[in-house]
Amino acid sequence: MTVKILLTGALMLGMSVASGAETPDAPHHGAMAQHHVDNRTPLPLSLPMANHQKQNMRAHLEAVQAIVAGLAAKDFPAIEAAASSMGYSREMEGQCQRMGAGAPGFAERAIAFHKAADEISAAAHRKDAHGVLTSLSLTLAQCTDCHANYKQEIIGNDGRGDLMQRMGGHH
Fold first, then answer.
1. In whole angstroms, what is the distance from residue 163 CA to residue 170 CA?
2. Fewer CB near the terminus (10 Å): N or C of the chain?
3. CA 168, CA 108: separation in Å to the nearest integer?
4. Which residues 6+ apart lie within 8 Å of 75 measured at CB?
5. Cα-flanking dihedrals φ and ψ of residue 144, to 5°?
């Protein structure tokens, strides 16, 4: 029963994130949009890097969907595999460092996300449904925190131009 309640809550959260439902801190649309100031920290990325990052985030959402489906079916190997696709690796750490080079704190938050996903895998390996849900919640909190604090900012074609100009350099 508890797993069903938690699973329902996770599904509702996923649907609200996927549908773009607003939170109290989220930007407002329509007439209110002109009064909203987006104070999130810019994450300067070239267009190809920004698209790559968005592809990664969509893959993470697909993994979350597979985790929830795995919970519903009590398929712990599927949960473990899906969570592992979001997990930490040295390669992923390097990618996070490159993506976050222009935004203080971003790389650390991104790495924390991947390490949190490892806890989902560990819980699935133990066949601990409650642990999977708890770890999934903590992992999604990493997503929410990052999206609340950072926004992509597309920079020049060479990936340096606008960033160098903002930093007072020449390109």
1. 10
2. N
3. 25
4. 69
5. -60, -45
Local structure of 85: helix, strand or coil: coil
The residue type at 6: L
Convert the pLDDT of each residue in 47-101 to its tens digit: 999 999 999 999 999 999 999 999 999 999 999 999 999 999 999 999 999 999 9
Q: How far apart are CA 128 and CA 130, in angstroms?
A: 6
CA atoms within 13 A on the CB side of 27: 15
DSSP result, 20-57: T---TTSPPPGGGGGG----PEEEEE-HHHHHHHHHHH
Q: To which H or E segment does residue 58 belong?
A: helix 47-73
Residues 6 or more apart from 71 whose CB is under 8 A from it?
3, 7, 10, 79, 129, 132, 133
Does pTM surpass 0.90? Answer: no
